[in-house]
Amino acid sequence: MNYNDSVRKIKGVGEKAENYLHKLDIFQVGDLLEHYPRDYDEFKELVPVSGLREGKVMAVEGVLRRKPSVKNTSNLKVITAFLEDETGVLQITWFNMPFLMNQLRLGTRYIMRGKVGRHNGKIVLEQPKLYSKNEFYKKVGKMLPIYPLTAGLTNHQMTKVVQTALSECEGILEFLPQEIRKRNDLVGYKKAVQDIHFPKNRVDFIKARKRLVFDELFLYQAALRAIRFQNDQKSCHVMIQKKEVEEFLENLPFALTDAQRRVYDEILADLSSGHVMNRLVQGDVGSGKTVVAVLALYLTVCNGSQGAFMVPTEVLALQHYTSLQNMLGVLGVRVGLLTGSLTAKQKREAKEKLAAGEWDIVVGTHAILQDNVEFQDLALVITDEQHRFGVRQREVLSEKGEAPHILAMSATPIPRTLALVLYGDMDLSVMDELPANRLPIKNCVVGTDYRPNAYRFMKEQIEKGHQVYIICPMVEESEDVELESVALYTEQLRQIFHGTAVVDSLHGKMKPAQKNEVMERFGAGETDILVSTTVIEVGIDVPNATVMMIENAERFGLAGLHQLRGRVGRGEAQSYCILMYGNDTKEGKERLSILASSNDGFHIAREDLRLRGQGDFFGVLQSGDKLFKLADIYEDATLLQAANEEAKRYEFHEISRFYARNRRLSEKLEHYMGKVSL
User: Fold this and answer.
1) Beta-bridge partner residues of 309
2) DSSP 8-state secondary structure symbol assigned to residue 208
3) Which domain CATH number covers 542?
4) Is residue 167, in this structure, part of any structural domain at all?
5) Is 38 part of a structural domain of the chain?
6) What letter does residue 277 receive in the DSSP assignment?
7) Which of 302, 423, 608, 647 is most deeply buried (CB count within 10 A of its CB)?
């Protein structure tokens, strides 16, 4: 029997058991052996009655001093007994196990093991199992597997099936080269599989898990590397640095930060390398990624080709279009705008100009992806807020030119470990430095009782000529969820600030033209307070806005809150963020305190990953599709780095051979990456 055989080949697995296993996506022997325990029942030494701790599973030895009693409660038969040792007396409780009344003997010594609870202020041992000394000490020190199950299948049955499979399977073959195992101190694959299911002790478990986690991460990184090799194309657009770009840099009204200069140099090296660039630029909110994008676009134009700048919202497209016009229009660069809200005539003219080469740069939304949008010579594609575009959208845009360079940008900081997983097929640049003139945002976490003080503070800021954002999680009132409603809140604020401030609102249900009008008024300083949903997360720069108040802040992810906060602090004046919680929970306060104590997006992202887990990190991973069975990219960050370094040692043909060694590995590759021809 080997890994690829049907589970029906396992002794004791009939049709009924097979159907149960199929419900768990277990079809082959390999699937079963990779159906790892979700937890372990660790048998530890006996403790005295006085040493029992609530919430723990523990074992105690004592003498039954009182006759057990039975009581009927709510259709339950409750047995109560009392166990005594030299340190105290312990109440024991069993539910719906009346047969025990015939087994329990007064004055007899027992070993009982169960969960320690509390009833009427006293420690209680709940639903314990009874053991002889011999039975109990055979289990001490062992870790018994607890498996993910389905209805009809018990943990005992699953344990027996796995034990049988391990004893009969001959296909548990080593596939990692010896030098990798030696460098990373990894146990053999067969031993790792055996010990992850039935570890003799915690040391063996740790070693087994380390090996299997490394396997998952290494195979994934090798697959990403294979894709990089496949995507590594010769470039038709080899660019050289132009004196016009150097002059543009010299004439900027500000000096580039060291991070901006470093990232631009990395982009320039890619564009001049003779290979197609595929790079992700990660920069914290306000780090100046747009300037780097402008430099790359201007370099492209100076080399005689076209560039496209795609963003997720029309508001942001208009802002970037205006910025590029102001910065490059005076230098003779022809910049165009293509969005969904343009009239049919405007769209037709835009497409004609692009196809004829009359526009050097186009800024737009997903409207750029339409089939009838053509370029004369597209050499550079930039996508802003990368996490909002799917891989397929990026591919569609790249197909509009002859192997154009790809530059993806994101203001959503992602820990390097997560970036290796999500964007491992791309080169990564990090902008971790803010412009020198930016003052750190001052943060505070407050309850709703602080709201009158917040309003007074806003009035003071408005009197100084500044503007305010207020973020609400809802658009309309809801009977089910008591959250601030944008519509209602806006009306309330108009009454509170009557005669002292102009209040406007913005939400996702508005038409694009309406959103643009609202944002233009706010950008022009005609509106003092803008009440908005998270639609403002990716919005225009308003340097005059100095206050951001977020209602029901505990309902947002840390990454999202940081993005929202980044709407202020873009000018030279001191800016403030008020995080107002509606639900006073310990967990909510802990999360908000992290945000209040730091303006570093990368630190916040790491904490968000730690608290929320890899599967829920601001929705970047597909819901319900766990990427790895054992690996956790936060807990296993060191192993991920090691796996990444090992994968880098292999050329394309070596990875091809590596995956071709057995069918199981090829299936893993397909799981990780989709169909990739190796």
Assistant:
1) 363, 382
2) H
3) 3.40.50.300
4) no
5) no
6) -
7) 608
